[in-house]
User: What shape does this take?
Amino acid sequence: MKYLAALALLLLNLAHAQVIPVTPIETCFLCSSAPSMTMYWKGNNAKAVVIFIPGGEGYMGLKEGQTETKSQFLLTLKRLTNPEQTSGNFDVVLLDSPGELSPRQMYPSARGTFDHLIRIESAIRYYKAKTGLPVWLMGHSNGGISLSEFIKYAQKNGKMDLISGVINSGIRTESYFNAPISFPMLFIHHQNDACHHCLPSAALANYEKVKQFNTGLTEFVYVTAGSAQAADPCRSGFHMYNGAGEDAAKYMDEFMSKVYLAKPQ
Assistant: This one.
């Protein structure tokens, strides 16, 4: 019976893993009209949906008809949908860019453009309507710039109600946030992150600043498990939670679960 239950759960997850194109809700002269490809993983009695904005160049190459990814980092996020690995109480969406963001540039300035920000807003609105759930944003590495820029955009345009929570994962040192903020915010970073753009000490200082003005639950956690790899430290090893995906997912799940235990939905 246990085997059959596990098989049924696996088939359910596969049935709800899909790539969905999301059309931008606004266009501009220099903006691409191509849709944003998103991979949607459905959780178990989900309480919220987490939209993930990747680091690097922001391009994952998602294709319609795709149901899985081989990236161990992205599969770490999928754990949030699986009740055998975490509470399973969260849907997860991977937000792809139709092209590379700031390729071969030291600073990812494209993360602050209207084209990128409206794609984030479009994904939020689409998945709010599709799931009926509150939306959390998660950014990793360069995705931290996307988070901070989108929050500033939301503050400026009276759209803060779109965001129900934020997970800052291994974010770049340049990421910063301004008051007012009133939603839960988790900072998670590997203690041994060797990426020179994403210093653990800077993430901790960022958290300490935000905690002073955020009226929502604000916490910081170091991931300590895992191992380095013989590759670019900004694209591998500790920075990408190599060998520590289970712990990283557990910390994220515990934080979000704490929020929804405090405020039943």
Notes: Residues 179 and 212 are 9 Å apart (CA to CA). The chain is about 30% helix and 15% strand. Residues 20-262 form a domain with the Rossmann fold fold (CATH 3.40.50.1820).
